[in-house]
């Protein structure tokens, strides 16, 4: 497959989210697609730039469409207020210390208005009252991704973090988290590390970093 190949699914039967969660999608109403990116020299230690660039591309498109209260929930869900409208799953194929290829899977809730048994989930139509043209929306997102990915191999995570942290969901607000062992605790999201980990301030001003599988935000 060529770099930049896009695969669009009209009907997603087994949508996968982070850590095995299931993505529910009604036929022909949402955007579910994957983009293949190839790299020559993207170092593993900077792989979080992919999360930043992808989530900011979608954030910018939705912002232009006047979707209110947009935030990026670490690592790369897109929220409107406290509801999730887009999920992103990035799978990297590594060769030694480098990312050879990435498959970027995106599920954006567009014109679906009923979500059974799913809390904190919404769609562009539910939020704005408008019906969107899926092809047009896909084109807008791909153009924005192309722009975000320009020269990505020479970018570092610390360079890109300020614009990402500016739109980070629940940053500096008291939030509830669950760790890998099921323990629930309070903390503040303070920043994201150069390795893409979430840095929380816990009680007694203790700062701790958490990786993707080590923590989930319960709001």
Tell me what the structure shows.
It is a single chain. The chain has 219 residues and is of the alpha+beta class. It has helices at 48-64, 124-128, 134-149, 157-165; strands at residues 6-9, 15-16, 22-23, 31-43, 70-73, 77-80, 83-95, 98-108, 174-179, 184-192, 198-202, 206-210, 215-217. Strands 1-4-8-7-6-5 form a 6-stranded antiparallel beta sheet, with helices on one face. Mean pLDDT is 91; it is low at 12-21.
The overall strand count is 13
SSE class:
alpha+beta
**Which segments are poorly predicted (pLDDT under 50) over 5 or more consecutive residues?**
12-21
Radius of gyration: 17 Å
Main sheet: strands, sense, barrel: 6 strands, antiparallel
Q: What's the overall average pLDDT, rounded?
A: 91
Give the oligomer, counting copies of the same chain as homo and different chains as hetero. single chain
The proportion of residues in beta strands is 35-45%
Shape: globular
Following the backbone from N to C, one meets helices and strands in this order, namely EEEEHEEEEHHHEEEEE
Straight-line distance between termini: 39 Å
Cross-sheet strand order for the largest sheet: 1-4-8-7-6-5
